[in-house]
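Ticket #4471: complex job returned nothing on first submit. Input attached below:
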Amino acid sequence: MKFSYTLLKRILGPRTPPILKVAEALTMHSFEVEGIAGDRLDINLPANRYSDAASHNGVAREISAIFGLHLRTKPIKAAHQIANRGLLEVEIKDKRLCPRYMASYLSIPEVKASPRWMQEILVSSGIKPINIVVDIMNYVMLEIGEPMHAFDADKLDSNSSRVANRTIIVRRAKPGEKLKTLDGQTFRFEPHVLLVADRKQALAIAGIKGGASSGVAQKTKNIIVEAASFDAPAIFKNARALGLLTDAAERFGHELHPELASLGMQRAVSLLKELAKADLLDSVDIYPKRRKTGVIGFSLKKFADFSGVTLDEKRVREYLTFLGFKIMDRHKSSGGDFLLVPPSLRLDIQNFEDVAEEVARLYGYERIKPLPPVVSLATAEIAKDSRYKRLARQILIGLGFSEIYTTSFAPKGEVEVQNPIASDKKYLRSSLHSNLRKSLVENLKHFDEAAVFEIGKVFKHSVKSTSNKRDLLVAENWSIVMAKGVKKGLPFYEMKGAVELLLQKLGITEYVFLDKRHSLEILVDTKPIGLMGVEELLKQGSCAYADLDFSALMKFIDEERAYLPPPKFPAVQRDVSLLLDLGTKAGDILQAIEDISPRYVEDADVIDYFEDKSLGVNKKSLTLRIVFRAEDRTLTDEEVDEEMKKIIATLRDNEFHAQVR
Amino acid sequence: MSTKDIQNLRRGFLEQIKNIKDVKSLEELRVKFLGRKSKLTVFLRSLKNLSIQKRREFGPRANALRVEFDEAIRKKLSQFSAVASQLSHVVDLTMPGKKVTLGHLHPLTLIEQEVIDIFTAMGFSVVEGLEIETEYYNFDALNIPKGHPAREMWDTFWLCELKRAPTRTHKGQAKYEVPDTGRKNLLLAPGDKILLRTHTSPVQVRYMETHRPPFQIIVPGRVFRYEATDASHEVNFYQVEGLMVGTKISLANFKYVIEEFLRRLFREQKIDFRFRPSYFPFVEPGLEVDIKLAARRKPQATSRWLEIMGAGMVHPRVFEYAHYNPRDLQGFAFGVGLDRLAMIKYNVPDIRLFYSGDLRFIGQF
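Support reply: We reran it on our side without changes. The output follows.
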C-alpha cells in the first residue's frame, strides 16, 4: 500500500525523521517497507493491520511509538452528532453483511478542484485527483483508513415524487441486476453480491465501486456521503470475482472496525465544510450491534519468560501508551501486572501474546540476546521414512545412479486436481516412471548412457472393502524408480543386478523375481513390491527400469546385521557349457540345478552366454559355474564328479534337453 | 666455525641421511644442510669477511663438505628414483585416471540432509508429514479460518472430491484415508476438503495431537503453491518446518537456535542477521529472518538482505486446536525454504533447475 511521506509529516510534525530512517524503522519495528519512490513509501501491510494501519494516521502512530514522537494532530473524537431530520433514510436489508451504515446529506455551492496540497498527497499515494468532493473522499480514506463514497443526491430516486426524501437501501443483487460503474464498465451480478441502491436501482457495488449514474460531477448541488462497515470475506470474494481490486475493496476486504466509519465521516464532513463550503442538511447512522473492546491482562514476569528479555515497567508503559493502549491502574500493587484496554481500532490485539508482540517489536527483536534453550536431554528420533530414504539414496548413488527430482503433477493419473495450473498437470502422479523416462531421453542427448533414480510420493485411489461396504481412499506412498538408458545395447542385466544389491543392502534377503513375460515382478515375502523391465526410448536408445513401492518395502528393511563365520571346508567349483533351446530361461536352469543337488550345490551362476548360427537353429550356449560345498567335510573330486554327472544327465533327460558342449 | 663444528656437522649429516626413507624427507634434509639458511651456506657466504689466513684454512674444508653432502644426497635420490622408474616402466603414470562411476545426490537432498544433521545434533527429532492434507490441518487448525484474508498468502491446489465408491449395498462412504506413517490410517469425515499442503505447518498440529511437550522437531518435505513458474517460483518445492514447545521456550531461544543453524549451514561465523516483524496467523508474534553473508562469498549473496524464513511464537489458538492448554506452554515455530537455501549455498540462479532432471546440473553435486 502506498503512503505519502508528506502527509505523514503533516500528521507527525517537523521532528519527523528523514524518509530513509522512517522506512528502516518501520521495517524493523512494524511492517516491511518494500520500496521508496520519491515521496512515496510502499508498505507491505499485514492482513491483520488494515483496521488500524491502512491509513496515514495509523502509520504515523507507529512512527510516533518507534521514535517516541508525540503526534501533532489531536485524534478525532469518535462521537458524531447525528441529525436524523428525516431528509435521508437508510435501510439495511442484510445486517450481517453490513453492520454499520452512516450517511450525511450535504449541499455544496460549487464542485471545484481540490487544493493543491491535497492533490499532491493524492498523487504521491497513487490516486488521481478529480474534484473536491471525490478528492476529499479519497483523502479521508488515506488519512483515516475508511473508504468513503459520495453520491449525487439529486440523481437518487429521480423518478420519485417525494423529491425531498432520499433513501439508501443496502441489499443483495436481484437476479440479473446490472450496474454501470464510474469507470464505464457494466457488471451483471450474482445474487449474493451486496449493493447500495435507492428505491429503484443499484447505485454502487457495496465497498467496491460507485455507479456512473450517481457520480459526483461539476453540476452536482447536493451530495450524500457514505461511510460504512461491510463483511470482509464477502467484499473480498466479490472484488475477486468481479476483478475490481479497488483501494476501497482492498481495505474492506480486510476486517475494519466500525468505528472507522464514524471517524471518517466526521473528518469528511469537516473537510467539506471547510474546503468546499458545504452545508450539512441531515445525517443518519445505523449501527445496531456495537463492537466492544475487551480488557487484557499483562504481566512483566510473563513477558520476560516469553521473550527472554526483562524490561522495566516504565518503558513497557511508555511503549503501550504511545500505541494508544489505556493502562488501568487498579492492579498497580501486584508488581508488574496490569490490565490494558487496547486501542479500539486494533482488532489484531486480543490476548497477552498480542500485547507481548507490541512491546517486543518496539523494543526491537534485534536487541534480544540469543539464549540457548534449557531443556531435559531427550534422544532425537529420526522418522523411519527419513532414515530409510537416506539409506536407499546412499546405496543407489554407490550403484552409479544419480538422483533427480521431478514434478508431482501428471497429465494422467488417479487423483485429480480441481484447479490444475496447466492441461498436462491435471492429476497427481501415480508413478514416477514416465518422469524418469523423460529425463533419460533428454540426458541421452548429452551422454552415451545415463542412470537416474527418484524417491518421491505417488498418489493413487484404492478401495477398502469390508463385509458390507466399500470405501474409496486416497493413498499416498513412497516410490523409488531407477532407470538406466543407453544409446546402444540393453542394460537390463545391470539393472537387475543393481536391484538385487539394493535389496540386499537394505537387509532384504527373502526376495524372488517372477517372470511376467513383459516385465519381471519383484516379490518380497510373497508380496509384490515392484516391477522391472525394458523399453525403447524414442530414437535415443533403450532403457531398463525398476519401479519399487518403497512404502511397502520399508516394512521389510532390516538394519540389523549378524556375523556368520566363513565356511570351514573349501568349495569346489566346476564350469560347464550347455547347448540349449533359445527359449530356455537361465533362471529355470539355475533353479533346476539347485533342486537336483540340494545338499551340495551352494551356488550356480551364468558366467558366459552366446547365440550363434554355428550352434544350430534356435540354439544358445550358456556357460555355468557351479559351486559345491559340504558343511561337514571337504568334498572329494569323485564326489563332485558324481554330482556333476547327475546334474548333466538330469538336464539332458528332462524338458531342457541340454547338451554339454 | 671451528674445526670441531665442521666435524660435528659432518657426523650429524651422515647419521641423518642413513635414516632417510623417502624423497620428501630427503628434501627436508637438503634444505637443512645445504639450504640458504643452513649453517654451511651461511658460513661459506661469510668467508669473504674473514682474514686471508682463516679463509685459506676453512674455505677449502667447508667447500669439500658441501660437495660431500651434495653427492650423498644425489646418490640417495637416485636410489629412490630407481624404484619409481621400475614401476613407471610398466605403468604410464601420466595416463588419465579411469572413469569410475558414482551417482550424485540431488542438491536438495544434500541440503536436507545437512539441515537434518544440524538439527538432530541440537536434539531435534525428524518427523515426516503428508503431501495431501485436509483443509482443516492446512488452514483451520493453524488459525486461518475460511474467509480469512490471510488465506490468500497461500495459493492452493485443491483436489477433486472423491466420488462415492461403487457399492452394491449403498452403505459405503466416500471416506478419505491417508496413510500416515507411525500410526494407524486416518479416516476423515466425508465433506472434508482435501488439498496439496501449501506448507509443512500442518504437521505442527498433527504432531502435537499425539505427543506431549517438551519436544523439538523439524519436518522436511515437499509443498505446493498454485503460482506461475519462474526463476524463483515452482509449483512444488521444499520446506523444513521447525517446532519447539516447552514451558519456557522464549523468543531469545528461537534466536539462538536459528542463528546457530544458519551459521553451521553456511559454515560461516560472520553472518549478519535481521529479525523483523511479520504476520502469519499461526504465530504471535510473527517474524521474518533475513541474512547477509560475508563479502568473500559469491557476490549475488552478499550485497543485500536475503529473506530466509518466516517464524514466530506458536499462537495460543494453535495450542488450543492441538488440545493443549496455552497457559502452560510456549514455543516457537519456523518454516524455511530448502530450495532458497540451496540456491544461496550452491549459487543456483534458477529454481527450475532442481526439477529439470538434467544430469549436467545434478552431476555437479
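The mean pLDDT of chain A is 91. Closing as resolved unless it happens again.
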